[in-house]
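pls ignore typos typing on phone
NAP + seq
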Amino acid sequence: MICVGIARGRHRHVIAEHRHLADNGVGLVELRLDFIQGNVQVRRLLADRPCPAVVTCRRPADGGHWSRSEEERRLVLRTAIVEGADYVDLEDDIAGAVPRYGRTKRIVSHHDFTGTPADLDSLQRQMAALDADVVKIATMATCPEDNLRMLEMVRGAEIPTVGICMGEIGMPTRVLCGRFGSPFTYATFHEDRLLAPGQIGWRQMRDVYRYDSITPATKVYGVIADPVAHSYSPVVHNAALAEAGIDAVYLPFRVPAENLDEFLFEAHRWPLSGLSVTIPHKEAVLRHAQRSDEMVKAIGAANTLVFSADGPEAFNTDADAAVESLEATLRDHGHEGLVDVNAVNSALVLGAGGAARALAFGLKRRKIDVTVAARTVERAKRIAAEVGCKAVDWTARHRMPFGCVVNATPVGMHPNVNESPFEREHLRPYMVVFDTVYNPENTLLIKEARQAGCRIVTGVDMFVRQAAIQFQIWHDRPAPEKVMREALKRATASAKQPA
Ligand code: NAP
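k done
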């Protein structure tokens, strides 16, 4: 069950949001009375409530907004009990002083915004002893291991226990706590009104992560990165899992570089079935791979892991995704693949990072004559030596004509949407222009290329393709690419733009 926090200053707004949530099938709300301005009318908020409610009134030290006296706060909580609230949330330092009364259930809570205590089990037992019906522990995750300790504490608890880690690192616990036995998780009414670090909105919890359908049998996949909050992979993969009816969930795991080894050693404790891998881990994960596909061996970087009894197996879907996206564009224009197409027997790759390297490898394997142009020419030369292609300085990128121009730099990405890495007067109608940037899909380079009559391949094409190849590897069936593309487009159009 998802418990949705309502934190509004006016009683009528609280009542309206409560009604709205109940009408949308939400079965439990948390009324955050510390947000109410002026006198709190507990009876008014609980009378005729459309679905069960937890009454909470937090002090600033516990992440709340209560500005009046502690005496008044306890009076509000006692009133909620007398008025028959379904649950009342009592912090562990006051729970002993507020007696049980009537049918109101007691949630005994503990918050730590600085870290996760070493002995969560004994903390949980002490809290359970305070006449708790439900124990709630919310602590800041400072490393991914904190998440596992929290979830394992929940699994071992003798009375219902909600265990959540806060912060970007802790986010997976919010989605997975039910899988480990939490009676409910917390989400906010609106993504822009977060009540605790790392919280997500209830619609995202319900519709993207499908919280209510997660069981102990649900397989766990995800993306590891640092940072990870900007990643669109969870939206795309979860949409595909829902469409295919696969009992699995895909989560964003923020894993700092110094925690990568430990995270991968502990993969069985989640347990993880597969991971997407992105910056800064694409090369470092290879230390753990028991086997690697041919592309990983050639490129020296992986973007996909599969966990089996023998350990992680590494794949790289970027290069194939890029080349397949290019081929699909050419097929749409009446060509059969790249190799014999005169117009695309040469390609200019802009940039010399991970994406450029994968692209240069992929194109070279299809016998395309590749030239890498980069701001830091030494990096371009390194790729050229590894791939067996040419390297030129950034300023030389317009000097020769190429059949295909590929942008593998972030130039043109949100918020710098008025920038292009390639000047429009050098675009020719015979060119294929491929921009790997996918946010926005229609970058300035893509718009100008379209105007110049070029064939185009977008970063959305490549992103969806690489995710679709991952899906095929993990789930052994074709991916619902249309659904994935729509999910990505919706997310880039409506979400807060990544930093
Ligand atoms: P990366 O390893 O950080 O490499 C970025 C490259 O771009 C570096 O060579 C960098 O040059 C260059 N660069 C950055 N800003 C530049 C500027 N203003 N002018 C010229 N060159 C500049 O990143 P990556 O992993 O390769 O990713 C690059 C881009 O590819 C991403 O931004 C993303 O949009 C796109 N991408 C798309 C997909 C997809 O599926 N569609 C997948 C992966 C990547 P220096 O070395 O001089 O800093």
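Confidence is low (pLDDT under 50) at residues 337-342. The chain has 16 helices and 20 strands. more later
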